[in-house]
Write a structure and sequence with these properties.
Blueprint lengths: L5 H13 L5 H12 L5 H13 L3 E6 L10 E6 L1 H18 L11
Antiparallel strand pairs: 1-2
Helix pairs in contact: 1-2, 1-3, 2-3
Length: about 110
């Protein structure tokens, strides 16, 4: 498995949570919802494009369902490779965090 960046992982998880409503803006909003981090569209677009080029996600262009007459929107979906990669990441994270207890007091 190719190692993914944290941003790529966040994007893929956002796509998974959004399902059929995963497009650039909703992906960005979903990441903000989960992390509290506000990223520019370009900060999301570059790794999203890389994920598509590497076969982790696929896109399809559809007419804008919410605003008729507007530019078509590019929707994203995880591929089988993307789903397998997320499952492996989850397994690795679970193993690495097993038995680790952190305390805020410990860092002081």
């Amino acid at each position: 498995m190719k190692e993914l960046t944290r941003k790529e992982e966040q994007i893929m998880l956002a796509i998974r949570h959004l399902g059929r409503d995963a497009y650039l803006i909703t992906i960005r909003e979903q990441i903000h919802k989960f992390t509290g981090m506000s990223y520019s569209v370009g900060t999301i677009f570059a790794p999203l494009n890389r994920l598509e080029m590497n076969g982790y996600v696929v896109s399809s262009t559809q007419s804008n369902r919410r605003f008729t007459g507007k530019k078509p929107i590019k929707f994203y979906k995880l591929t089988d490779k993307g789903l397998q990669s997320l499952a492996e990441l989850q397994k690795i994270q679970d193993v690495m965090w097993r038995g680790v207890l952190l305390s805020v007091e410990e860092g002081r």
